[in-house]
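Quick one, probably user error.
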């Protein structure tokens, strides 16, 4: 796979270069943008390349945890050769630093924030920007955003999150989803296996927006021996297990060893942490338990099974946990997620489907399609096929026009793009009326502008149409006819292939109709000439 180099040892992957260019282009129109890049997609490398691009204007990176701060410093330096400085607690960055990586807790303090002139930075990056609407972030962003471009980066916002973030961010220039990375062989496919071990969470309190770790630990404790037996069935894999408490993690590791699994526990107080991780890396141990120590900044590509025994209501946390196992590795053909049956009245317990679902209804449809076991991408495809069929039924019920134009929903469904067919606005400008320019362009492409919902829908359609044009793929009009002639995959043909297919189809139709046409030609001509003499304003010729 081709990559594009920065002036350093780290290279941009093609999709990272695409993201970089889309963000730069988006800043020509919008000052505050949101980039969606799935866990494992290298979002730090993307904003490092932007920091380099905007030199000599300085960049501020905001993060909420110490691990993220030092991880960003390291990757920015390795990717660009720039020397970031840290603004956190007793560490004070100089006013001459090309990149400052700052703790939001530190910069939320007015005295520390006011060290920096309001026009000091040309770019402000908000890492894990789902927190951007909190008071601490708002105070920092208000200080700088009149003079700086602001880029929020996040891995897995659903439509509800995006609508909330739309209160501040104005545009989403790029979305790189989990399956985009899997299909391009940057990440491993994900399979899910449901473990029919029911663990109740009804007595667990919620603390700071998530299940209380102590309560979850107590709920989990009676099941540890049975969990160890389940893990024994997968002992041939390299398994990483996440638990709520250190004591529970230690107990599970001990029980796994008693069952004959080469297992160890690791936590922040482990004196030989490096040695434990090295033994796991080399396969001397095949199962490693931890109490949420390894959620970020830990990369061991050979992990091919992840077990989340720390139920959560936080999608970004679950994504980070799963992300520890999505890296590709020789001999690894997929990641297995062992999904235990947590019983909770709340509907916001994060499940594997939430890694890819746009909302709760879609997550439920994916989990239903998945059943007890299967490939996550195949389950999503099945759920989308069902959703597409319902949209087609709705389209047929509502079809009142005999327009020669292609209905926008029908066009999107012919491309198998269900999200485009059932477009849902997220940014405030999405809900505005379609512009005259958009209507004219959509009509020129052969689509019915009256079937477009709003400005955001029009923008998404035009993006798709212009992209297909740049890639020399079949036009909307060609796709419509290909679809009607019964072609199984009209969206995949080039313009020339579509033209050839439709020409061949028309020739076959003409050959079939020609004998009948010859028999009736004389009669039709006579009738035509007679009728023409009665047309007002026309002379016989």
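Nope, works fine. Designed sequence:
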């Amino acid at each position: 796979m081709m990559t594009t180099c920065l002036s350093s040892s780290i290279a941009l992957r093609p999709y990272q270069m695409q993201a970089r260019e889309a963000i730069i282009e988006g800043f020509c129109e919008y000052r505050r943008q949101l980039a969606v890049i799935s866990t494992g997609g290298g979002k730090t490398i993307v904003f490092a390349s932007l920091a380099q691009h905007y030199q000599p204007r300085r960049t501020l990176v905001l993060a909420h945890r110490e691990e993220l701060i030092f991880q960003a410093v390291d990757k920015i330096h390795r990717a660009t050769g720039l020397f970031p400085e840290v603004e956190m607690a007793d560490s004070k960055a100089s006013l001459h630093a090309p990149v400052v990586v700052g703790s939001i807790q530190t910069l939320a303090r007015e005295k520390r924030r006011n060290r920096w002139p309001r026009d000091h930075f040309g770019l402000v990056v908000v890492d894990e920007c789902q927190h951007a609407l909190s008071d601490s972030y708002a105070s920092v962003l208000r200080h700088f955003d009149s003079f700086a471009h602001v880029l929020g980066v996040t891995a897995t916002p659903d439509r509800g999150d995006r609508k909330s973030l739309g209160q501040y961010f104005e545009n989403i220039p790029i979305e790189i989803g989990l399956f985009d990375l899997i299909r391009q062989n940057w990440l491993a496919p994900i399979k899910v296996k449901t473990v029919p071990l029911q663990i109740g969470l009804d007595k667990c309190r919620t603390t700071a927006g998530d299940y209380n770790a102590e309560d979850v630990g107590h709920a989990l404790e009676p099941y540890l021996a049975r969990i160890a037996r389940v893990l024994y069935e997968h002992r041939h894999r390299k398994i990483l297990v996440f638990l709520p408490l250190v004591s529970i993690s230690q107990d599970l590791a001990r029980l796994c060893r008693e069952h004959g699994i080469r297992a160890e526990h690791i936590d922040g107080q482990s004196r030989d942490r490096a040695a434990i991780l090295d033994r796991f890396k080399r396969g001397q141990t095949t199962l490693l338990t931890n109490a949420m120590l390894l959620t970020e900044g830990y990369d061991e590509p050979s992990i091919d099974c992840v077990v989340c025994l720390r139920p959560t209501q936080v999608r970004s946390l679950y994504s980070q946990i799963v992300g520890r196992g999505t890296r590709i590795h020789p001999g690894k053909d997929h990641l297995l997620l062992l999904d235990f049956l947590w019983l909770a009245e709340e509907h916001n317990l994060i499940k594997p489907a939430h890694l890819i679902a746009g909302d709760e209804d879609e997550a439920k449809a994916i989990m239903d399609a998945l059943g007890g076991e299967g490939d996550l991408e195949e389950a999503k495809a099945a759920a989308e096929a069902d959703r597409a069929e319902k949209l087609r039924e709705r389209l047929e019920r509502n079809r009142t026009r005999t327009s020669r134009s292609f209905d926008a929903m029908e066009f999107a469904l012919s491309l198998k793009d269900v999200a485009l067919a059932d477009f849902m606005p997220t940014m405030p400008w999405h809900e505005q009326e379609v512009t005259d320019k958009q209507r004219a362009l959509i009509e020129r492409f052969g689509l019915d502008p009256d079937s477009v919902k709003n400005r955001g829908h029009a923008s998404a359609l035009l993006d798709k149409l212009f992209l297909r044009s740049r890639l020399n793929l079949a036009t909307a009009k060609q796709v419509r006819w290909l679809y009607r002639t019964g072609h199984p995959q009209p969206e995949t043909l080039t313009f020339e292939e579509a033209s050839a297919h439709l020409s061949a189809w028309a020739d076959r139709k003409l050959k079939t109709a020609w004998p009948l046409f010859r028999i009736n030609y004389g009669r039709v001509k006579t009738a035509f000439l007679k009728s023409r003499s009665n047309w007002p304003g026309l002379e016989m010729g």
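The chain has a mean pLDDT of 87.
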